């Protein structure tokens, strides 16, 4: 796992924080734009950087909530390959939800089961019960 040099980390962190402010106000399109700006600052070999995990997870989350399931899937799949991404219950949850909404129940069940194994019931707490039901099926 590699940390970004401060010259990149600080502006990326600032953009993530700006995006989070929009996100918290329900302005998901504006949040997504800030998250995408942060992604553009990531150096090549994106999957090498810890910051990539958070940037891509934010993009995936906003995309999912905007019903852009393909876009969410792409970002979250990449986040899964970044440092600590494969063990992040939230990333696994959102990726499983995208799989479900894209009509791939077997992949969805696999990801959602992994999310449950890592995060338990808590990760599903504020989510539509249909996702947890898939784990129990």
TrEMBL record:
<dbReference type="InterPro" id="IPR019734">
    <property type="entry name" value="TPR_rpt"/>
</dbReference>
<protein>
    <submittedName>
        <fullName>Tetratricopeptide repeat protein</fullName>
    </submittedName>
</protein>
<feature type="repeat" description="TPR">
    <location>
        <begin position="12"/>
        <end position="45"/>
    </location>
</feature>
<keyword id="KW-0802">TPR repeat</keyword>
<dbReference type="InterPro" id="IPR011990">
    <property type="entry name" value="TPR-like_helical_dom_sf"/>
</dbReference>
């Amino acid at each position: 796992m590699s940390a970004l040099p401060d010259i990149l980390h600080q502006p990326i962190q600032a953009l993530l924080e700006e995006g989070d402010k929009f996100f918290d106000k329900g302005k998901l399109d504006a949040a997504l734009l800030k998250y995408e700006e942060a992604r553009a600052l990531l150096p090549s070999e994106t999957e090498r950087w810890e910051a990539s995990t958070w940037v891509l997870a934010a993009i995936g989350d906003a995309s999912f909530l905007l019903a852009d399931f393909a876009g969410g899937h792409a970002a979250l799949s990449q986040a899964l390959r970044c440092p600590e991404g494969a063990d992040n219950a939230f990333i696994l949850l959102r990726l499983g939800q995208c799989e479900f909404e894209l009509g791939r129940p077997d992949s969805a069940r696999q990801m959602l089961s992994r999310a449950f194994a890592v995060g338990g019931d808590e990760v599903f707490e504020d989510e539509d019960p249909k996702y947890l039901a898939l784990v129990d099926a």
